[in-house]
Design a protein that fits this description.
By secondary structure, the protein is of the alpha+beta class. Helix content is 36%, strand content 21%. A 6-stranded antiparallel beta sheet has the order 2-1-5-6-7-8. It has a two-stranded antiparallel sheet with strand order 3-4. Strands 9-10 form a two-stranded parallel sheet. The N and C termini lie far apart (85 Å).
């Protein structure tokens, strides 16, 4: 039986090789890599549900924080239940029941040609804009609208910044702004996470009495008529500051949430 003899001959030659020979070293290395890759793949699959839960909880915590409803030790899902997620048709500025606000994925929609469109005027540097966005409504104890939380994103210096802006019930006064995902430079652009800088947004206004969009992130002392709309730029992070200015003005403008905010002001929702 020639085949059996060949196998026996191969095994004999393999056993005769020194332990530190090149073939045996390569065999051990490849076997170890395959084994480790199987372990990593199995861990990734088994941990994915936990990662998704933690990702959702982190998003809910950021919404609670920007709305001023977060406290250490609270049950995040329970506290978040006070918010009503609604899917907004951005062009019409009205809510739609075509999607479930609890499960609709804004980011995924922006990459779906049927749910988004290319931008020709793109100051925020996002390329494509979803036709829909999930907004979060928070009512007071009497059942009246208290705050509106809007998702925003745009390019800074090194990364796309994803965050939320919280507006008062009039849709014009800013309660807070917060980013939850970015890769800006620590100590510079990453200062968008600095509580002192975020506090500057509280009480500022988006538009003047004539309805013109005025909110601005810029260096220097503003003129008296611009104080209500001015946010100091981050020191040493000019491009990140410009990026934040661009993305906030884009999302508060006509391509973003302006139609919705106009309907909100007019009581048409």
């Amino acid at each position: 039986m020639p085949e059996q003899d060949d196998n026996q001959g191969f095994l004999a030659r393999w056993k005769a090789l020194p332990t530190d020979s090149v073939p045996k070293t390569i065999f051990v290395a490849v076997s170890l890599c395959l084994f480790c890759s199987m372990i990593v793949a199995a861990a990734a699959v088994s941990l994915r549900p936990i990662q998704e839960v933690n990702k959702l909880k982190d998003k809910q915590m950021n919404i609670l924080q920007v709305a001023g409803r977060y406290e250490d030790g609270i049950d995040i899902p329970e506290a978040f239940a006070a918010f009503e997620p609604r899917v907004l048709d951005l062009a019409a500025g009205t809510f739609t029941d075509a999607f479930d606000g609890a499960t609709f994925d804004d980011r995924a929609a922006a990459n779906d040609p049927e749910l988004s469109r290319n931008l020709t005027d793109d100051p925020a540097g996002i390329g494509r804009r979803s036709n829909y966005a999930v907004v979060y409504l928070l009512n007071d104890e009497a059942g009246n609208l208290d705050k509106v939380i809007l998702p925003i994103h745009g390019y800074g210096l090194w990364s796309t910044l994803y965050g939320f802006i919280a507006l008062e019930e009039n849709g014009n006064d800013i309660f807070g702004l917060q980013f939850y995902d970015h890769a800006e430079t620590p100590g510079l652009g990453a200062e968008v996470d600095n509580p002192r800088w975020k506090a500057m947004w509280s009480g500022k206004e988006l538009r003047d009495a004539a309805g013109d969009l005025k909110i601005t992130v810029a260096k220097g002392v503003p003129s008296t008529d611009m104080e209500a709309y001015h946010i100091d730029a981050l020191a040493g992070a000019t491009l990140t500051s410009v990026g934040v200015d661009n993305l906030v003005r884009f999302w508060m403008g006509e391509e973003g949430f302006a139609p919705f905010l106009e309907n909100l002001k007019a009581g048409a929702l």
